Amino acid sequence: MTDIPQDHPRYESLLAREKVAAGVKMGITSIQGLIAQGRGESFDYLIGERSTESALYSERAAVAALLLAKNPVISVNGNVAALAPEKVVSLADITGAKIEVNLFHRTETRVHLIIEHLKANGASEVLGKNPDATLELSHDRRLVESRGIYSADVVLVPLEDGDRCEKLVEMGKTVITIDLNPLSRTSRTATISIVDNLTRALENMTELALEMKKERKEELVKLIITYENKKALSEAISEIQEHLKTLSAEIEY
């Protein structure tokens, strides 16, 4: 990886690019993942590269759902494995969630490499190598494990494909997504949509999980019942608009 000075104004963004590029070289990230990373980065500019109020609102609801779940699962693709493997493992440990590798551009080699990468970052068990169930999809994201995604009641699917998100919701699952684009089909289809950068979202959720584990079950249930996903998405769009207005005012002449 390129040595990026920490005082560089684009340090976090450049570091994320390096991680995805390194993931491609390692064989855990598909070449298409580079395009996805760039698209997400453009939306991060629009929200001001920060966790907004709407994001934190969704993150609290997401943590409540994971803590209340009987069989929570975190789905991991190549970009997630490259960008934040240790953060996935930390959140899974705190919430009791399983981790399952699920890929659009699937090869057995990539699955194996991602599993080993997650284990190297602290995971004790990672599902996905032996799919024994299928979702009603026409691509390889349909391949899942029966004790993982297929039977999960709550699934966290960061950096998700819209059609799988839609199918999981149709199956009656609570689907949590992390997607910087509030207009995407994924964001509009999910049960809880987090419009935030992957790394920031996972860090926030881990901190929240440590706090919220101490709360009474009734309080967690209340968070879920009162959560409104359309409200979160609407506010995310408003936050983008306000940020752009601020930037516009700064460069007026």
Automatic annotation (TrEMBL):
Protein keywords: ATP-binding, Coenzyme A biosynthesis, Coiled coil, Ligase, Nucleotide-binding
Residues annotated to bind ATP: 17, 39, 179-181, 185-186, 197-198
Catalysed conversion reaction: (R)-4-phosphopantoate + beta-alanine + ATP = (R)-4'-phosphopantothenate + AMP + diphosphate + H(+)
Subunit structure: Homodimer.
Organism: Methanosarcina siciliae C2J
Xref: Pfam families: PPS_PS (PF02006)
Lineage, opening ranks: Archaea, Methanobacteriati, Methanobacteriota, Stenosarchaea group, Methanomicrobia
Main function: Catalyzes the condensation of (R)-4-phosphopantoate and beta-alanine to 4'-phosphopantothenate in the CoA biosynthesis pathway.
Primary enzyme class: ligase
Keyword set includes ATP-binding: yes
Keyword Coiled coil: yes
Residue ranges of coiled coil: 195-250
Pathway annotation: Cofactor biosynthesis; coenzyme A biosynthesis
One Gene Ontology biological process: coenzyme A biosynthetic process
Family, as annotated: Belongs to the archaeal phosphopantothenate synthetase family.
Stated name of the protein: 4-phosphopantoate--beta-alanine ligase
Molecular-function GO term, any one: acid-amino acid ligase activity
Taxonomy, superkingdom: Archaea
Entry EC number(s): 6.3.2.36
